[in-house]
Amino acid sequence: MNQVAPIPLPLPADLRQTADYIRRTQRSDGAIPWFVDGKLDPWDHTEAAMGLSIAGDWRAAENAYLWLARQQLEDGSWYANYFLSEGESSHSQLRETNFVAYVATGVWHHFLITRDKKFLRTLYPCVKKALDFVLRYQSEHGEIAWAVDSQGVGQDDALLTACCSILRSLDCAAKIARSLGHDHSLWSESAVKLHQALCYKPHRFDRTWESKRRFSMDWYYPILAGIQDQQTAQIRLQQRWTEFVEPGLGCRCVSDEPWVTMAETCELTIALIASGQREQARALFTTLAQWRDTDGGYWTGYVFRDSVIWPAEKTTWTAGAVLLAADALLNLTAAHSLFLHPVEVGV
User: Rounded CA gap, 282 and 123, in Å?
Assistant: First the structure.
């Protein structure tokens, strides 16, 4: 007997409008640029597609993943940026490994909501090629090169946040394979190595440039990656809370700039929930309402020193992040806990 797909819960009106903002920006071919006539990158495209899945716009989300499948390069990767406009298209030559891996997180997220095995089978080859590409650039120490140049040469350094994102994607890829009865031992073994690097080998990150510690993502992403228990996560967030959180406004992108950004505020909301601090998460999430425009889109950031919205952009990935945070907070879908539990490393 075929499993009946769940009926999506009705969204609150403001979240419905935010999902509609993503839908209006999505191109007819499934691509979701940052904004109309803006650039597209695979990670943010996937983040926006996840927002569509939460909203019950399943066909639109599936079209977004099918766009990725059609654009996938022979080696399994995607370019870091695509520049799409009427009648023309161009792209950068660099490939970023965490951008490539994120398709696994998006595909598993969509399946958790829809329980559509046909979709999972259709996208599995795309996911497999993407993860196989990424793992070619894992070092013997476990970390994964942050990017690959046009000649296929991995850049000789790794980013903590990017590798945290890849670890979650490896976990999702293994779950996809297991659900379809495919072998996932290579991905699981690679996840163990990456987990070890993230937890015990900090010297393998930021080796050739200044530390990224000033970025809030390096602060909370280990929690989203599922490599810290709740008590450790709470201590981690407490230690640098005043550096990154501007009361009443949201989370800074970097600790030394007077700039709060809405996507980081959303991700920190999810990290708070994962650490068992739901009420604090709710309070932080409520700061987002002031950055919502009348069309349902959210401004990317706000420079509070100058009282200026900057940049003057309402990005689809910010809208997607809002929907993901709302789902984690309100339990809107069966995927609400995707970023809330430890990764099943080695399972």
Answer: 34
